[in-house]
Design goal:
Length: about 180
C-alpha cells in the first residue's frame, strides 16, 4: 500500500512538472506571452467547430482574425528580428512565410460570409495551419527553445511585446470587415 501511494505521488509530481512546462510558468515573459496567445486562439478554433449559427461564427472568426493579426505583427516587428542570430535563420524565414500564408487566408475568409461555400473549410484549414506553426515554434529545438538559449533578455522583450500588443489591439479592434 505504501509503495502504491508513493507511486501515485510520484506520477502526480511528474504530471504537474509536465503541466508547468506546457503552460510555460518557467518561461521568460516573451515566450510566456506568445504561448498564451497560442492557447487562446487554439481554444477559439475548437469553439468555432461547435458553432452552427452564422452570426456566432462571424463574431468568433473576427476575434480569431484580430488575435492572429496582432500576434503575427508583434512577432514580426519585435520577436523574430531580435532573435536573428539566436535562432536558426531557416526557422525564422519559414515562420515569416507561414505568417504570410495565414494572413492571405484570413483576408480570403474576411471577404466571405459564413454562409458562403468553403467558409467553414477555410476556417478549419487556417486552424490547422496555425496549429502546425505553433508546433514549430514550441517544439523542443524550435524557435522558442532556441530563443531561450540565446543572449536576448526575453523578459524585457516581453514587456515590449505586451505594450505593442496593447497598441495594436486598440488600433485594429474597431476595424471590422463586416
Amino acid at each position: 500500500m505504501v509503495a502504491s501511494a508513493k507511486s501515485s505521488t510520484k506520477s502526480k509530481t511528474s504530471a504537474k512538472s509536465r503541466r508547468t512546462r506546457r503552460t510555460g510558468q518557467r518561461d521568460p515573459l516573451a515566450v510566456r506571452l506568445l504561448k498564451q496567445d497560442h492557447r487562446e486562439v487554439e481554444g477559439w478554433f475548437d469553439e468555432y467547430e461547435q458553432l452552427e449559427d452564422d452570426a456566432e461564427k462571424l463574431e468568433l472568426f473576427n476575434k480569431i482574425a484580430l488575435a492572429l493579426k496582432v500576434h503575427t505583427q508583434i512577432e514580426e516587428e519585435i520577436f523574430y528580428p531580435e532573435e536573428r542570430g539566436q535562432v536558426e535563420d531557416d526557422m525564422l524565414d519559414e515562420a515569416f512565410v507561414e505568417h504570410d500564408g495565414a494572413k492571405k487566408l484570413i483576408a480570403e475568409i474576411e471577404a466571405m460570409e459564413p454562409s458562403d461555400e468553403f467558409y467553414d473549410a477555410k476556417v478549419k484549414v487556417l486552424g490547422e495551419y496555425i496549429k502546425h506553426h505553433v508546433k514549430e515554434e514550441e517544439q523542443p529545438g524550435g524557435i522558442f527553445a532556441q530563443a531561450k538559449k540565446g543572449d536576448e533578455d526575453l523578459d524585457a522583450m516581453g514587456e515590449r511585446l505586451k505594450i505593442r500588443k496593447e497598441q495594436l489591439m486598440a488600433e485594429l479592434e474597431p476595424e471590422r470587415p463586416h
